């Protein structure tokens, strides 16, 4: 049995701002189509936008985006250089914000935050629907 190589794309995003969101989403869409995982496009784009928006709002500066194909789906990680970890919790009904990561945790198979020596990585994993890997 042949082991397929890991396909991934890593981007350095210096001083990311809101104007970078659409071009980054377009790159992610192209990757998903090339990897025959376009059925995950909506959820992955939403997740990428949420993670990068959090960088813009809470950890301005450089960040890194990793999009990796897994045997059963896609893993996305965003690394920034702010040490403060995000709080993923169900927001109060009266709260005006703070819903993004909670909603992302409901949409994904896994959402994790990993502290690093300098900064953190927030990542999520989404699986393809059963029987649909690579059928695009």
Automatic annotation (TrEMBL):
<feature type="domain" description="Histidine kinase/HSP90-like ATPase">
    <location>
        <begin position="18"/>
        <end position="125"/>
    </location>
</feature>
<dbReference type="GO" id="GO:0005524">
    <property type="term" value="F:ATP binding"/>
</dbReference>
<protein>
    <submittedName>
        <fullName>ATP-binding protein</fullName>
    </submittedName>
</protein>
<keyword id="KW-0067">ATP-binding</keyword>
<keyword id="KW-0547">Nucleotide-binding</keyword>
<keyword id="KW-0723">Serine/threonine-protein kinase</keyword>
<keyword id="KW-0808">Transferase</keyword>
<dbReference type="InterPro" id="IPR036890">
    <property type="entry name" value="HATPase_C_sf"/>
</dbReference>
<keyword id="KW-0418">Kinase</keyword>
<dbReference type="InterPro" id="IPR050267">
    <property type="entry name" value="Anti-sigma-factor_SerPK"/>
</dbReference>
<dbReference type="InterPro" id="IPR003594">
    <property type="entry name" value="HATPase_dom"/>
</dbReference>
<dbReference type="Pfam" id="PF13581">
    <property type="entry name" value="HATPase_c_2"/>
</dbReference>
């Amino acid at each position: 049995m042949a082991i397929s190589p890991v396909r991934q794309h890593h981007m350095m995003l210096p001083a990311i701002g809101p104007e970078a969101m659409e071009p980054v989403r377009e790159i992610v869409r192209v990757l998903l189509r090339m990897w025959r995982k376009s059925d995950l496009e909506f959820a992955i784009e939403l997740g990428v936008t949420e993670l990068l928006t959090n960088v813009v709002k809470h950890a301005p500066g450089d960040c890194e985006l990793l999009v990796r194909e897994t045997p059963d789906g896609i893993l996305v990680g965003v690394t920034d250089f702010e040490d403060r970890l995000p709080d993923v919790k169900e927001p109060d009904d009266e709260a005006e914000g703070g819903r993004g990561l909670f909603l992302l945790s409901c949409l994904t198979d896994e959402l994790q935050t990993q502290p690093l020596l300098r900064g953190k990585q927030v990542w999520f994993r989404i699986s393809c629907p059963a029987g649909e890997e690579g059928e695009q």
